[in-house]
Amino acid sequence: MTHTKPVNVGLLGIGTVGGGAYTVLARNAAEIARRAGRPILITRVADRNLELARAVTGNAATVTLTDDAFAVVRAPEIDVVVELIGGYGVARELVLEAIKNGKHVVTANKALLAVHGNEIFAAAQEKGVTVAFEAAVAGGIPIIKALREGLSANHIEWAAGIINGTTNFILSEMRDKGLPFAQVLKEAQRLGYAEADPTFDIEGIDAAHKVTLIAAIAFGIPIQFDKAYVEGITRLEAADIQYAGQLGYRIKLLGIARRRAHGVELRVHPTLVPEKRLLANVEGAMNAVLVKADAVGATLYYGKGAGAEPTASAVIADLVDVARASAIAPSLRVPHLAFQPDQLRSDLPILPIDEAETAFYLRLVVEDKLGVLADVTRILADEGLSIDALLQREPEEGEGKTDIIILTHVCQEKQANAAIARIEKLAAVTEKVTRLRLESLQ
Question: Residues 46-70: what's their mean pLDDT?
Answer without folding.
Answer: 94
